[in-house]
Amino acid sequence: MSAEPQSPWQTAKITRIEKRTPRVTSFWFQPSRPFVHLAGQHVDIRLTAPDGYQARRSYSIASPPEAGAAIELAIERLDDGEVSPFFHDVAVVGDEIELRGPLGGHFIWDTNDGGPILLVGGGSGVVPLMAMLRHRTLQKSVAPIALVFSARIWDEVIFRDELIRLDDRHDGFDLVLTLTREQARRPSDYSRRVDAQMMMQTIERLPKTPRLAFVCGSNAFVSAAAEALIDAGVAAGLIRTERYGV
Predict the structure, then answer these.
(1) How far is CA 78 from the centre of its chain?
(2) Residue pLDDT, tens place only, 106-158
(3) Nearest to 67 by CA among 117, 104, 94, 30
(4) Which of 59, 111, 182, 200 has its CA 20 to 30 Å from the CA of residue 80?
């Protein structure tokens, strides 16, 4: 994710903390100035040490635009990271940090854009896709959407209960979970890495070919998922990607 200098830094107070998985925790921030975003956008976080050293990291926004000023960031703990250990080990409700945003104008979806849409997320790459799904729900949209979410194990499926509840509504949203290190827990899910066959079978759940596909995750995951989509017949020009880390 690239920074956009024209967006000014501002302070934001942590108002709530909720553990999502063993390595992912959600933090809600109340910015000091009005904050309006689109589903799929992200923010930059900046931490400053007493000696003046600064560390920055970009995080996708999990909360939908309808959530108002408070924004949710689901932060995965990276043991060798400069920012995530602070949030997991030090940060408490009431702390203030610096952020800027919203950032990003390519990896976004609005209910007015319509569907069908195919979402593909790996690990914490599901976060901006979650914002899109929440936006769809709150707008009472029936745009067809399918989400392929790859995680290592069942307990690492971020937003698992919420996603399953959305899937159980049968309102045009289809959830496909694939676990790479455990057996699938649901009949419609998979126990392997994403591949072209999985993508083709997911596309078949949609009423017609997706008008856009959004893929988010690590560099390796995004490359593999995008290749699988192309092999499944999705035109490269319809695939939008967001990459994290290495």
Answers:
(1) 17
(2) 999 999 999 999 999 999 999 999 999 999 999 999 999 999 999 999 999 99
(3) 30
(4) 182
